Amino acid sequence: MTDTLDTTGDVGEFTAVDTTADASWFIHFMDLANALPEYVAVRRELITTLGDLTGSTVLDVGCGTGDDARELAEHVGPTGGVLGTDLSEAMVTEARTRSAGSPLPVRFETADMCALPYDDGAFDGVRAKLVRQHCPNLDAADDELVRVIRPGGRLAVFDYDFETLAVDHPDRAATRELVACWVDGHRSGWNGRQLERRFLDRGLREVTVTPHTVRLPFGFFRASLEGKLAQAQASGQLSLSAEDLQSWWKPLFAAQENERFFASLTGFVLGATR
Ligand SMILES: C[S@@+](CC[C@H](N)C(=O)[O-])C[C@H]1O[C@@H](n2cnc3c(N)ncnc32)[C@H](O)[C@@H]1O
């Protein structure tokens, strides 16, 4: 796996993996993200948040390449099982390919988290990492997450709050405009801070929320912002010209060159009992 990524892709369009020319861009983006040290800690907490998983049936919603589902499957043991579901057939195919020959109790299906094809209370635990933020109907998605957990079962969620993006840049005014535009370009830019309220409102109890700040390497920062900001500029959403936008990137390239680049983003792990 290389640690660079074409920066023209738009990570806000994870709902459209199958209709983009190159689904492998999204796969590579997720592999880069999941390799960050902070993600290791997030995955560990998501697993402990689900409680004792021995013998449990667990649903991983928006499973992507299935790496996390396989990690979960190591904890359920031979009497349990993990089902990974994703809207994208390309992702499900990748997840099945990566799991081929594995003795772990894990399987994969396509499903839209806004209308899950499973019975009420079908799972002991449900996990959703970085998928809610892409849903066009967040209320339906959250209702579904809760519906398929059995009474007493556990929910574990990780999502970013994009307004927490911090980047060290000399031009504060331009940076504020660009960050605000990037935040508002997401379907649910304030997703993270709303997690606790949204699941309390759905009747869950023992709700906990833990912040995790991720330091963003320059390549990952570029891949996350560059395509979106260029599109926003081209469609007239910014006061900056294309040249201004190009100039804004220059100090960041220089900082990266001098090992002075700094950016971070905070996400939140929610745990809750139905
Ligand atoms: C950022 S990736 C996260 C994947 C995985 N959970 C991880 O953390 O590595 C978002 C995933 O959500 C999937 N997705 C987007 N909208 C979805 C929906 N409505 N229902 C199910 N999956 C969806 C995408 O296809 C993609 O695989």
From TrEMBL:
| Residue spans crossing the bilayer | none
According to the UniProt entry, where is the signal peptide?
Answer: none
Q: Name one GO molecular function term.
A: methyltransferase activity
Q: What class of enzyme is it?
A: transferase
In terms of InterPro entries, this protein maps to: Methyltransf_25 (IPR041698), SAM-dependent_MTases_sf (IPR029063)
Q: Under which name does UniProt file this protein? A: SAM-dependent methyltransferase
Q: Which SUPFAM superfamilies match?
A: S-adenosyl-L-methionine-dependent methyltransferases (SSF53335)
Q: Which UniProt keywords apply?
A: Methyltransferase, Transferase
Organism, by scientific name, is Actinokineospora spheciospongiae
A Pfam short name: Methyltransf_25
